[in-house]
Amino acid sequence: MLCRTTIVLGVISCGFCGELNFPPEFKFGVASSAYQIEGAWNVSDKSESIWDTFTREHADIISDRSNGDVACDSYHLWRRDIEMLVELGVHFYRFSISWPRVLPTGFPNYISEDGVKYYNTLINALLENGIEPLVTLYHWDLPQRLQDLGGWTNPHIAEWFENYARTAFELFGDRVKTWITINEPFVVCDMAYNTGLVAPGIIDPEIAPYLCNKYTLMAHARAWRLYDKEFRHKYHGKISIANQLFWFQPLTDEDKEVTELALENCVGRYSHPIYSKKGGWPPSIEKTIHDNSRRQGYLKSNLPVLTKQEIEYIKGTYDFFGLNHYTSRLVRKAETGEKLSPWPIGDAPDFDARLLVSPHWPKTSSSWFFVNPPGIRKLLQWLKKNYGDLTVLVTENGFPNLGGVEDVDRINYYRDNMHEILLAIKKDKINVTAYTAWTLMDNYEWMDGYKSKFGLYHVDFTSPQRTRTPKASAEYYKSVIKAHSLKVPHIIRVNNPSSCSRHHASSLLHTTLLCLILVNLAFY
């Protein structure tokens, strides 16, 4: 039998270790979402979501033709999830409520007792263990019935979402003090309708993304104003939206203007109406889409008008900036006649730009994901420059690989990104107050199925018990939280070298020493 031992892979040593300590009030958490972990897709009276439909009708798009019918089975195994959160020592757990689980018809005319019981049980268990629930109202699993009525391209969805939000605030608001309205409307709108690679699987790049853009903003604003008017004085909570932000940087100095358009198209269309002093669409994007629409033969811009009343209604509907960040792109102007692939994971046809990656950015198991840790600090600087001094919660940040529990690559990603955040806090004076690791455990990763693993815990999807096992990254993150600092050892567990061949033991020692040197050098 091979016994296990622990090897210190690296200890950060540097001349500025004071920069590695987080502010005393800084909080650490982990995140998940309902469709990705809950399973129980048709248990009790839950209705189908657009992802239940999409994975059946478009299984060929999913890399392993899988679905989230069972996923991590957290609907039944929530007790183990709580144990893992306690093991990590997190301050908060970000999870989402499944709209079709709580409101099977999509409307509050019928509220599921079993659905409400599940979330009440989860919330109460978190609080009993000293963990704050941070709840997302919408993480992509729209009731299929509402999609049949037009989904996020129907202007009535803003009212439907407000009614759903009211139900959630009334049911859970006495215990939930931090809310996210919509997770990554950029994916809900731009990714969905430009590529068809995510639910609802409809490709309509000229019209649908912009309708969806407006109505997700209106839905968010209605939920925020509802909470502000009717619930804040009772529950004293906070509520905002979580935006997915790529960092874009110019390939050359000649590409600066088109790079700024890329930032406004990704970040600005979903942030400027809420966080800027003037509100409304980013002017550069408003002009670009208007000009493109006329060239395409439309009589007016495909970007819907925001009336003065709507601009004022959306503007200022935030208590913090929810920042999801994973990866970056280089931007250059397209050459004449150059073929461009669809935005956002290909190129940017709307403003004739190629989106590229640096050969120095490591690849991951996800085709869209390349590692560039400085991107998160640059994004934070861009947000401060454009929207002023905001309180920022990093609501998602994580790394995918193909599996394994000795995930040094994930440790490096977390360490490097958290270090960039610390620099933003201490050097740039940006008020980042929380970091959320994506994700608690391996789960259903949308079009990647179960191929890409983001988890701090490994999940055995071949086991009926969906056995969860901590990875090296879980031990590392636990150490960071406990120390409230990045000045912690990198630890991996390996088979005892004494049980291995002499050659294997020698190779292991060589690798360990090399990694130790590299880790130390990385922080000078």
UniProtKB/TrEMBL annotation:
Keyword Hydrolase tagged: yes
Subunit structure: Homodimer.
Family in the record: Belongs to the glycosyl hydrolase 1 family.
Transmembrane regions: none
MF (Gene Ontology): beta-glucosidase activity
GO terms (BP aspect): carbohydrate metabolic process
Stretches of the chain forming a coiled coil according to its record: none
Protein name: Myrosinase 1-like
PROSITE patterns: GLYCOSYL_HYDROL_F1_2
